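Deliverable D4.2, example record:
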Amino acid sequence: MSDHLRTALRLAADGLPVLPLRRGKLPFGNCPTCARNACGGRPNMKAAGACGCPAPCHAWAAATTNPHVIASPAWTSAWRHAAAVAYHPGGAGLTVVDLDDPAAIAWARNTLPATRTVTTTRGEHWIYQGTMPSANAVRPGVDIKSRAAYARWLGHGTGFTAPLADSVRALAVKEPAAPRRAAQSLTGSLGGRGGACPHRTPTYLDRGVAMAVQRITEARSAVHATVYRTFLAVLSTHGRCGCLTDTHVTRLFTAAQAKGESARHCTDAWTNALTTLGL
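Output generated by the structure prediction step:
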């Protein structure tokens, strides 16, 4: 029995759906039709696999906790030649924030709630309890792996697994179409929300706004989406207690307009973020 197979069986016993990966971090095709990714690697969970197989047989959809499948003859060759063990985070009720470089790690440490952390070849995996849609390149060096995705198993990591926060969910949210109505004034989009204040000191809020301004200022592409996601992240953390003032939001709008966004788009993005969060 290979080391990868032993690891896979142990993880499956703990409730983690697993699958083998070949070189290049790609899944094996577990049937002749899917060999060498001939089917395009697009499992279809609604019916048969995209390859025409009677059931999903590859990629994240093949991940399982069934020890009889994991150790079956169909998978034996794959485990013998596997380069790594992978798992389906969404199938285990988890979300992985994949941070690919030191800059992404520094951003996460200043922006996201602390959680269980696993060291990777180039960066870190931050693991949260809860699922969400997967998304690639939500910001430079940051991918989200949860539903319909797989991640390499690189150990248990360190720290406590925190609940999936709104600030993480906001990373994968696309801006909805702007409502067909007159643009609100800046003051009209604010106001106290009456919620419990999470800010230990005013510095916490000021630092959060400063980091949001920096994120917008450093955006090199997808500025439109970055502005919306940043507004959404700020409001998810600071928007329920009424501590945000016109001064704070003007700083955000000014940063966005310096990147070429119009005042109308800033107002629409802010309004859409409020609506998305139910504020």
